[in-house]
Amino acid sequence: MELATFRYQQGAWSQAFPSLDSANTLVIAFAAPMFHDRPELFAELRGAYPQSTVIGCSTSGEIDQTRVRDESVTVAVARFGGTRVRSAAAKLADASESFDAGARIADELGAGDLRAVIVLSEGLHVNGSELVRGLNSRLPENVVVTGGLAGDGDRFGRTWVMANGKVETNGVVAVGLYGDRVKIGHGSKGGWDTFGPERVVTKSVGNVLYELDGKPALALYKEYLGERAAGLPGSALLFPLALRATTEEQNSVVRTVLAVDEASSSMTFAGDIPTGHYAKLMRANFDRLILGAQAAAGAAGTKEHLSPALSIAISCVGRRLVLGERTEEETEATLETLPEGTQQIGFYSYGEISPHATGRCDLHNQTMTLTVLSELP
């Protein structure tokens, strides 16, 4: 695998486009939301790599090696030697189509030698849990599925994905990697602390939460947020929910808020909040967030990876808001932990897609999720 990373910032590309175009080249671009209105930049990428698969999405911050940037485009170009690359895309009229979008993409990418799928979705009008279920319903368990939901800073206004140079505000795009030479590592860790009582989800529909313990969920959140309630939904990123099906279950998934509805006193999350599940509020522990990022890198960066390797880092915008000036400590922790020679790009997201450790993928929030790609000679 041949690999190059570069960026667009302050009106210019950081270098000439590397000559790595081929049918087996993957180009990934993570861009600030403002670049929705600069389609010529993505046309340039597509023009430079006409045979390649070119995908990307909007962000809540772009990861460039260890740096976290804004108002930039971060790009990785990976030309594989013996790994096939294919893309698929779907549109979403609304969140109810999320399962079908995942299933259609899985059907289009499906093949006997499929080894991994990297999926990027718009971040506001998708039910990430249903998207993941759709993918899992059609893909074999040995296919590694990772990715994330596009971001829009802490504004929650407009997100988008890019497929082969074309920007879509209501789309999902994915790339499949095929053959025995590609090596895929993945890790997803959090680092948040739970607090307060565990509550039962007593009323919900899909990813919309109405009641916890028979009380309006939004009112409960406002109690904990205090003065920060005026900043909803963005301020709710500081207090995600840990969710588990039973009190005996050890693993929980984390859910973060995308929108609030004052009229119904409800909250819309990035993934499902099933009625009957148990929910507990979470808050940040700075050091544990950094250690969580380090643990994700430890899980993703196996000894099988050869240099060069590409790390795709997808971290939740809530982590960035909490860490503030310490944000780059988590991107430094991942790159320092990964095998020598690894290059890293990524973005801050509205949701992360990855297996817990092994097996089927799931939707996560408030995690650092890493996908590490390399190729055997």
Account of the protein in words:
The protein has helices spanning 39-48, 98-109, 128-138, 217-225, 286-300, 317-323, 327-337; strands at residues 2-9, 12-13, 25-31, 53-58, 62-64, 67-69, 72-79, 84-91, 114-121, 144-149, 161-163, 166-168, 171-178, 182-189, 193-205, 208-212, 215-216, 241-244, 253-255, 257-261, 266-269, 278-283, 309-316, 342-349, 351-355, 361-364, 368-375. It is of the alpha+beta class. 56% of the residues are buried. Strands 15, 16, 17, 18, 19, 20, 21 and 22 form an eight-stranded antiparallel β-sheet that branches. The chain contains seven helices and 27 strands. Helix 5 (286-300) packs parallel to helix 7.
Task: Provide the fold topology.
Elements: E1 2-9, E2 12-13, E3 25-31, H1 39-48, E4 53-58, E5 62-64, E6 67-69, E7 72-79, E8 84-91, H2 98-109, E9 114-121, H3 128-138, E10 144-149, E11 161-163, E12 166-168, E13 171-178, E14 182-189, E15 193-205, E16 208-212, E17 215-216, H4 217-225, E18 241-244, E19 253-255, E20 257-261, E21 266-269, E22 278-283, H5 286-300, E23 309-316, H6 317-323, H7 327-337, E24 342-349, E25 351-355, E26 361-364, E27 368-375
Helix pairs in contact: 2-3, 5-7
